[in-house]
UniProtKB/TrEMBL annotation:
It comes from Paenibacillus allorhizosphaerae. This is LiaF transmembrane domain-containing protein. Keywords: Membrane, Transmembrane, Transmembrane helix. InterPro entries: LiaF_TM. The chain crosses the membrane at residues 36-53, 60-93. Residues 10-100 form the LiaF transmembrane domain.
Length: 102
């Protein structure tokens, strides 16, 4: 049996669907799956929005991309805050080294 891209995606969808079903039935698969599932839905929305754009459904495509992107932005807010803090520290150190900055 030859494996192509569509079969791999199908196996991945079956795997995640099975994990979601087990979780809903009370068989807890651990904290890692809960964390992954929280990212899976907004990422799927962005992916489906992209497919909508490619297939000519511009309105629904952009709506899904914007909503999924906003959800992902909320999930990434902690990492964005850390990146801003590191950037401020690096910028402050560079200002101390180069006194004629301002």
């Amino acid at each position: 049996m030859k494996m192509n891209r569509h079969k791999g995606l199908a196996v991945l969808l079956i795997f995640f669907g099975g994990l979601i079903l087990l979780n809903k039935l009370g068989v807890h698969t651990g904290h890692l799956f809960g964390h992954i599932a929280g990212w899976l839905f907004p990422a799927a929305m962005v992916g489906l929005g992209y497919l909508g754009l490619v297939n000519g459904r511009r309105t629904i495509g952009w709506v899904l991309i914007v909503i999924g992107g906003l959800i992902l932005l909320g999930k990434l807010s902690g990492l964005i805050g850390i990146a801003i803090a590191v950037g401020l520290i690096v910028f402050g150190i560079s200002m101390l080294r180069n006194r004629s900055f301002l």
